[in-house]
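# step 3/5: fold
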Amino acid sequence: MSFLGKKKSKKTTRLFFATDIHGSERTYRKFINAGKFYDVNVIVMGGDISGKLLIPIIKEKNGNYRATVQGTVQKFTTEAELQQLKDKLGLLGFYNQVMDEDEYNGFAADPASVDKLFHKLARERLVSWIDLAETRLKGTGIKCLVTGGNDDDPEVLDAIKVGGESFIPVEAKVVQIDDDHTMASVGFSNPTPWHTPREIPDEKLGEIIEGMCAQVKDFQHCIFNFHVPPIDSTLDLCPKLDVTTDPPTPIMSAGQIVFAGAGSPSVRKAIEKYQPMLGLHGHIHEAQGVVKIGKTTCINPGSEYGEGVLRGCLVVFADGKIEGSQMTSG
């Protein structure tokens, strides 16, 4: 689209949005590099930035290694093979820890120690990501604005609260995007079948959103960076799950998966009530799209973090109006 190739003017802002990278090293690096690649003023990460799994790598008495990855036991004999495994786990967004058999058995008998190690490794990765953003974005003028999502444990999110010159945490804040536009960010979600760390009753989510909106002076020039999408917007369409099974399984009808909206009624209510310029959402990985709710353009770029693919959306706006948007993948 031709508008994406125009040079920036004083009143035009170019924003790149991505979300739900779930600890993937490659995807995060692509996100940081997207600022220069798409020639934007600001990059926004919309939540679920930390990974989901910790993979133990067991060093056997003979000096070899083994690990169970995605249900398959894999064995490695050289340090080079071990590094390849670690790189693969980083791509998938997983954390890893090398340990001997006795250490592994100790962790297996103490779930609390596993949680403690998981949080430690997750925080360490986030700290390294802040350092990477500061290094790559130094002197560019590009700001990296980051919020957590429902999958991000509060203890892990503590690692990004300090931020830096370019890496700026925006959770529960209304921040300036440029001279004319602001952004309000909320990372919590309504309840899910997965019982994630930061899901809350939708009524409570609505109270938090109202508290954020009370700080917004001009909604026409405001962006809602709300991790969960609005209910029944197509941006929240996903398989309907049977929560009586463990884990929850897709509900089938006539041999086909049943789909339903899993977004938030409170998010939709706020968008319909306040009509911000733009809504940035994620949470539902398979529901990529751009829709209008009244005057508000709402976007979910989707997520393919496990493949190392960065899905995003480039948005250009000026004076409270969206000049254009373009989905990206790479």
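# step 4/5: annotate
The radius of gyration is 21 Å.
# step 5/5: archive (pending)
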